[in-house]
């Protein structure tokens, strides 16, 4: 393959890409997904009731926890970029008309790829796990409304800065454009294990594979535009659209079959 797309760096570059990528992803989940999300909910407790009668968290508490989780992602990425002076990894600018075209094109690509994957999964008869957030929202639809701005403002930017901005660009430096996209997308898919934990193994594997494949679209768009805003907007709107649809179905007594099969990630 043309060296423009595959170009293996030296051992130190490859080792740095693997070590730093795994380290920053683990740090993001520990700081954002555990420390800050937990602290955020605890700080909320003196002001509102954070527990439901069954012992679960209220929609507001869940929303606050998720918000702090992805604020943590962003803080970890910024801390990494500052510590290692790697600001050049992140291409960012005010979107141009060309960028907006890629937003539309990337979103449509996700729709088409999602439809193809849905048909394949149905045809071969494999299970697919459900994102745990969807299950929580089905029990308390109010949560879906909170998830719309959270995904637009925090989830899209947080995950894209982490997986496309840092991980993909480190692996691109080590192996080239195509391996960088594929490796980052694979790690992106694997990271979604936390959203499916406790479900059937085969269903989890299918879900992680779908997330990884859809992640390739976001990685490709980032390389084509060199603007992290583009995949962040696509990602945020993709999930926001799905949670808006989930809210409508849940609040209008419609069967889940009324929803087109879409995979939030």
From TrEMBL:
The lineage of its organism: Archaea, Methanobacteriati, Methanobacteriota, Stenosarchaea group, Halobacteria. It comes from Halapricum hydrolyticum. The keyword Flavoprotein does not apply. One of its GO terms (biological process) is CAAX-box protein maturation. The chain crosses the membrane at residues 21-48, 60-82, 102-124, 144-163, 175-195, 201-222. This is CPBP family intramembrane metalloprotease. Keywords: Hydrolase, Membrane, Metalloprotease, Protease, Transmembrane, Transmembrane helix. The keyword Protease applies. PANTHER family: CAAX AMINO TERMINAL PROTEASE FAMILY PROTEIN (PTHR36435:SF1), SLR1288 PROTEIN (PTHR36435). Residues 143-241 form the CAAX prenyl protease 2/Lysostaphin resistance protein A-like domain. One of its GO terms (molecular function) is endopeptidase activity. Coiled coil: none annotated.
């Amino acid at each position: 393959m043309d060296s423009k797309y595959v170009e293996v760096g030296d051992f130190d570059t490859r080792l740095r890409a693997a070590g730093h990528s795994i380290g920053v992803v683990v740090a993001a989940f520990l700081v954002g997904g555990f420390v800050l999300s937990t602290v955020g909910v605890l700080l909320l407790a003196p002001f509102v009731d954070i527990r439901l009668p069954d012992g679960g968290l209220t929609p507001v508490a869940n929303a606050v926890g998720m918000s702090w989780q992805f604020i943590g992602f962003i803080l970890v990425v910024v801390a990494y970029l500052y510590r290692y002076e790697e600001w050049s990894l992140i291409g960012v600018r005010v979107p141009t008309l060309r960028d907006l075209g890629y937003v539309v094109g990337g979103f449509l690509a996700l729709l088409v790829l999602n439809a193809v994957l849905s048909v394949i999964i149905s045809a071969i008869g494999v299970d697919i796990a459900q994102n745990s957030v969807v299950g929580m929202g089905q029990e308390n639809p109010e949560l879906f409304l909170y998830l719309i701005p959270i995904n637009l403002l925090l989830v899209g930017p947080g995950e894209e800065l982490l997986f496309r901005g840092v991980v993909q660009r480190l692996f691109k430096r080590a192996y080239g454009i195509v391996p960088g996209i594929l490796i980052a997308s694979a790690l992106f898919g694997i990271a979604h294990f936390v959203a499916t934990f406790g479900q059937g193994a085969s269903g989890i594997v299918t879900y992680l594979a779908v997330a990884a494949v859809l992640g390739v679209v976001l990685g490709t768009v980032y390389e084509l535009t060199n603007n992290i805003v583009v995949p962040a907007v696509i990602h945020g709107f993709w999930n926001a659209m799905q949670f808006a649809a989930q809210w409508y179905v849940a609040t209008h007594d419609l069967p889940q079959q009324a929803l087109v099969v879409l995979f939030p990630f």
